[in-house]
Amino acid sequence: MDPFLRTRWLIGSDAVDHLQKSCVAVFGVGGVGGFCIEALARAGVGRLDIVDYDRVDVTNINRQIIATTETVGELKVDVMKARIASIVPETEVRTHPMMFNEATAGEIDFSDYDYVVDAVDQVTAKLLIIEKAKACGVPVLSAMGAGNKLHPEALELAMLSETKVCPLARVMRREVKKRGLGDIPVVYSTEEPKKVEGIEERSPASISFVPSAAGLIAASKVIRDLVQSEKEDSLVRKLQ
User: Ranges for the THIF-type NAD/FAD binding fold domain (predicted)?
Assistant: First the structure.
């Protein structure tokens, strides 16, 4: 039985076959990235590169798909790879247990990818991912802030230049423009971040349903773009 049968009914066999030949890289296997990766695999993407240096922590259990009492302490990329193997064994998953920065960027060949998803937190890493992807002509989508939010319905797909409200998007707009990187699609929230009084210098607050929704929205954009590119290529072949 074909695990992608119902997907074929929805988008067509040619599209599914194209997805199975595609390679997508996801940077960050956290609340957003983990759900994105799993959705990509369940949709039929045949090759996935996942990049994250971190290990599962007990505080990840409230929102990260890979975080359980049994996986605490394990490398996130290893847990994610094992999870995908239990869902779609045919999916090729390459793991990169590393912090992506200027020192390690040379270890990643962006030209190998059909799409790149940035789901990391650090602005410098996000900018570097965008820069490297664009230099190779690879489509890239970036996830903005999902912390301190309660309303998944406020999440949107937009171009970075069109974003509002989100503090991370504000910083990214400025830095992307400064570096001449052009515009990029993002998933972001129009919800004002919730302020927690009396708590300083901590990670953002979070809950189960906002980062997950952002990850699924990101995956939907990647899949639809890859399917559209297949249709356009097919049309060109027919016209030749």
Answer: 10-229
Stated as kind and residue range, the H or E segment containing 95 is strand 92-96
| Type of residue numbered 66 | I
215: amino acid identity, one letter: G
**Residue 233: CB partners within 8 Å, gap ≥ 6?**
none
pLDDT digit string (tens) for 215-236?
Answer: 999 999 999 999 998 777 665 5
Any long-range contacts for 200-206 (C-beta under 8 Å, 24+ apart)? 203/147, 204/145, 204/147, 204/148, 205/147, 205/148, 206/31, 206/62, 206/63, 206/146, 206/147, 206/148
37-76 burial by CB neighbour count: b if 16+ within 10 A, else e? bbbbbbbbbbbbbbbbeebbeeebeebbbbbeeebeebbb
- What is the SS3 assignment for 154? helix
For residue 96, CA distances in Å to 26, 50, 77, 132, 160 come to: 10, 6, 7, 16, 27
The pLDDT tens digits for 131-171 are 999 999 999 999 999 999 999 999 999 999 999 999 999 99
Yes or no: say if 116 and 140 are a contact pair by the CB < 8 Å rule.
yes
Output the pLDDT for position 231.
Answer: 73
Tokens of residue 114, six digits: 């059909």
Which residues of the chain have a pLDDT value below 50?
Answer: none
Instruction: Confirm or reject CATH 3.40.50.720 for domain 5-239, answering yes or no.
Output: yes
